[in-house]
Amino acid sequence: MERQTVLIVDDSKLNRMMLMEILGEQYRYIEAQNGREAVRLMEKKLTVDLMLLDINMPEMNGFQVLEQMNRFRWIDEIPVIMISTDETNQAIQQAYAMGVTDYIRRPFDTFIVRHRVENTLKLYANQKRLMYLVSDQIREKEENSNLMVGILSHVVEFRNHEGGDHIRNIRSITELLLRQLVKKTKDYYLSEEDIALIKTASALHDIGKITIPEEILNKPGKLTSEEFAVMKTHAAAGAVILEQMTFGQEKPLFRYALEICRWHHERWDGHGYPDGLRGERIPIAAQVVALADVYNALTSERCYKKAFDHDTAIAMILGGECGAFNPLLLECLADVSPRLRITSHVPLDGDPYRLEVNRLSDELLARADLPRNDRVQRILESLQERIDFFASCSGGIQFEFDALSGLADITNWDEPPQYRHTVKNAAHPECFYRLSQKDFHRLQEAMAATTKETPEFSVSLLLPCGTEHHWCDLRVRTLWSDRQPEHYVGAVGQLVDPQLSVKKPLLLSAADVNTEDGTQALAAEMRRLRMVFDVVRLVDPTTNSVLELDEQGVLHPNGSHCAAFWDNDRSCANCISSRAFAQKTTLNKLEFTNTDMYFVISKYLCLNGMPCVLEMLSKLSEGRWIDANGTRLLLDHSRAENMELFMDPLTNTYDRRYFESYHSHLEGMEHVAIIDVDSFKQVNDAYGHQTGDTVLRDIAAAIHSCIRSTDTLIRYGGDEFLLLFPKMDEHIFVRKQNEIREAVRRIVIPEYPELHLSVSIGGVSGVHPLAEAIRQADYLMYENKEKYYTEGEHVTPPPKMEENIKIRDK
């Protein structure tokens, strides 16, 4: 049986340990040292069966936590036992008024604490079981009702020789249109109950067809005018069948079913049947089902016709080829068109609750009382703006694939904005007409072969480009979720035609800047770019010079070396601007200084006959960008304040939980080092744990002083640190290790100046996966530690215990 989870919120570590000792090992524990940390944990949707909450805590006290739990209705899901030394009636009454289940006073009574926790957990567990039982019964009753309606409608479909999916599709499309209609207008006053009833009643729209002779109903060719007149009687016949019922006519479901049966062939302009109703005289339920029925008829195969594809069907309906419909409903149809790509081909019983999940999520997102974080929103908007800009500069075709829906959202940056974005259904290879059947299956197999640890791959594809065929580079990264570790949940990728990327127009072409107006345009463009990028400059890669543009539009070297920005006194290795200059194209990459990481875009230009390169540099400093397997991943940026939960409070480094949570994101690190404090146990034993804490804090600070903001330092164990470098020359990596050793040797503990510190380091380069790199680095670290002790250069031994006690007493 799975253990229940208890969240203990108390600023005293001793109190938290006492409570865990009292309750024993039968529960799983989560600890929070203040109210704010507890709220952040609940925001992460952690499963908590019980909260033990202190009142007096820093940052956010217990009553403030209860306010948040009431605001977001967490108090309905998580029982709370308040624990405090405050015995005043006012505090106890306030706690109960705010929804706590029980109140326990300190000092703890072991018997009372244990039994009150057990009783509370049993009570809430029984309540949840009852709730699930009632929910199951309601769902079963609804499924039985739907089953009976389905059986009845299937009888009609059986005579009509139509596919079994017809009724399911009508219900699904009807619900999609109704929900979109409710979003657009409140004129029809449709509640959730109304939507559910109309959806159910839509299954009976063609019940009158049981009165139509089978030779007419299933005739493979075109009906004669006499036969069509007979066929049209099914609408009124269905209404008569319902009207002859002797029960249930007062129910809303009956009213909707009657409206749909009789009037689902009426048209907005009055040219429908059987009564020739016009405009809003047609009940809205019948209008919606009529539109759903037409779309499904067009996209389904019949005995008298082939099926039309989705795009053709939508175009025919919107173009008026299938009769006149409510203009507002036609807008709704256009809005839900991407969703219909799935609905028209995926059986509803494959995922019966997806529409309800979508509805609930939309409803939640629209609620005004949801927590807002303006800082995170601003960061994400700024990031999206930069990403879009970078993507448009890179060109090519980019896509995002969602495995659940089967849809691929495709952006072709080489197309005009109005034609740039399309949505394709990956279940239909014909949508990807440029790919051969063989390449399509090759791509599917490559994606299926990825894992969470190795999510990336690249392939070359021979694709049509006008009258020619070009070799194109496709790069794909699959996306994974901890909740579904056995299969990827989506993918992102980019398709680039190297031949076109050289030919495509640049930001400013040679023709643009070889005039006076062009020179002014370049100056204006650079001013605009400086609002987006941290550094914008013109360089001459052949002389490594930074250039200036004077008022006459002439370029002059300003005396600066372009590589100086990168803390380099000579030409950069693998200089991207040199490559862009030589190829007369646009390129981008990540580049590092000793302290920061930059995203660099280099564009070739020719100004008044003088070739140069426009460099645009964006400093990536707000979050932790990692070039893992060549892919930029922003780990911390969007998480904002929640990352504090992964910080070790003593050393101000990431803790082990951070490593375990984001292990997959850290794969692909180029250099990995394990750092262990020498003789740390002796320091603790001789000088005390407080001094040991000071040693760890100072060593962490010393390591931080030697690394870049883009490198990752994790407190991996008690006195052991894990250091990850995403990108760095190997000789610099070796130099960094020596710098760290020297920085640690320079540490002085003021109270104990005779104490000299040192660390042992093991480092590896280019070893993958990360677990193997850590194992090898750890082995090298212990080898170096053994060598260090053998050579007798280890940490200064502490004084004998009795001498040390005198020192500490003094």
Description:
The chain has 28 helices and 25 strands. The strands form six sheets. It has a six-stranded antiparallel beta sheet, with helices on both faces. Strands 14-13-12-17-16-15 form a six-stranded antiparallel beta sheet, sandwiched between helices. The radius of gyration is 35 Å and the shape is flat.
Top keywords for this entry?
810 residues; alpha+beta; six-stranded antiparallel β-sheet; 28 helices; flat; disordered C terminus
Low-confidence stretches: 345-383, 501-512, 621-641, 793-810
Shape: flat
Beta-strand percent range = 15-25%
Given helix and strand content, the structural type is: alpha+beta
The tally of helices reads 28
Give average pLDDT, whole number: 78
How many strands, what sense, and barrel or not for the largest sheet? 6 strands, antiparallel
The value of Rg in angstroms is 35 Å
Helix content: 40-55%
Distance between the termini: 55 Å
Q: Strand order, biggest sheet?
A: 8-7-6-11-10-9
Topology, number of strands: 25
Q: How is this structure best summarized?
A:
The protein has 810 residues and is an alpha+beta fold.
List the helices and strands and how they pair.
Blueprint: E1 5-9, H1 13-23, E2 28-32, H2 35-43, E3 50-54, H3 62-71, E4 80-84, H4 89-97, E5 102-105, H5 110-160, H6 165-184, H7 192-201, H8 214-217, H9 225-231, H10 233-243, H11 252-263, H12 284-299, H13 310-318, H14 327-335, H15 337-343, H16 354-366, H17 374-394, E6 397-402, E7 407-412, E8 421-425, H18 437-448, E9 456-465, E10 468-479, E11 490-496, H19 498-503, H20 510-513, H21 516-529, E12 535-540, E13 545-549, E14 555-561, H22 576-583, E15 586-592, E16 597-607, E17 610-619, E18 625-628, E19 631-634, E20 647-648, E21 653-654, H23 656-661, E22 671-677, H24 680-687, H25 689-706, E23 712-715, E24 720-725, H26 730-745, E25 759-765, H27 770-790, H28 801-809
Parallel strand pairs: 1-2, 1-3, 3-4, 4-5
Antiparallel strand pairs: 6-7, 6-11, 7-8, 9-10, 10-11, 12-13, 12-17, 13-14, 15-16, 16-17, 18-19, 20-21, 22-24, 22-25, 23-24
